[in-house]
Amino acid sequence: MRLRLPEERPTELPTGYKIAHPVLSQDGTRAGFTGVSLGGALPYGVLADASCVYGLRHRAPNRRCDCGFHCVHDRAAAEALLCTAEHRTAVLLDVLVLGRYLRFELGFRYARQRVRTATVGTCACGTVAAALADAGWGRPGWRALAPSCAGCLRGRTAVSLAGFARLAGEGLRVVARPAAVPGHGVPGLPEELGVPELAAEAALLQARLDWFQSQLARLGQGGPDGGPQGG
């Protein structure tokens, strides 16, 4: 006889976290997300139903299949996935688990979801993102987007964070993650710099630059004794 776990009847809808790549439709009228692993070829909206990625006719999630949306319980576990090279431009999603679900030790596999919040990482230059710009790859009919500051857009197809939320609809919130702060123990980087400290650092750098320029000018005019240099 096969033992089965008791069916859960939660008083509140479960929540979880996952990562995904933001995408924009080819005509620029719709926004959504595409997964980073199983089912990544199928973009989905803020409110979406899962289907079997293998084309089987059973409902997702099925215990004998890997189909269904996936998320983890712990936000930190989802954020850790953003450290890998292929996921650096993905966004962190806070999701509401709807419909049937299977609970695992680390998270859920489930039939329906609503994305409540998308947290966008920093631009590749380290600045807080102001937009989501063409990442240079995509799916048929969809452009993948990556976080970008205003200075790094360089004419690429882009949409502001508020514009992406508006196109995605369903009350989605899109927020930008703050720029990274230098950590403790990083050699040569002062910690918790304020305006006075930054001004002092800038003055020191300018003084060093002036010294180098004076040395270059002296060497260009003559040798160490001030006379003309021989050939």
Can you summarize this structure?
With 231 residues, the chain is an alpha+beta fold. It has helices at residues 75-81, 161-168, 195-221, and strands at residues 15-25, 31-34, 47-49, 69-72, 91-103, 107-120, 131-139, 142-148, 158-160, 173-176.
Rounded to an integer in angstroms, the radius of gyration calculated over CA atoms is 26 Å
Average pLDDT across residues? 85
Series of H and E elements: EEEEHEEEEEHEH
* Number of extended strands: 10
Spatial separation of the terminal alpha carbons: 98 Å
- Number of helix segments? 3
- Uncertain parts: none
Shape: elongated
**Which strand-content bin applies to the residues?**
25-35%
Q: Helical residue percent?
A: 10-25%
Q: What structural category do the secondary elements indicate? A: alpha+beta
For the largest beta-sheet, the strand count, sense and barrel status come to:
10 strands, mixed
Structure explained in plain terms:
There is one protein chain. This protein is of the alpha+beta class and 231 residues long. It has 3 helices and 10 strands, in the order E-E-E-E-H-E-E-E-E-E-H-E-H. The radius of gyration is 26 Å and the shape is elongated.
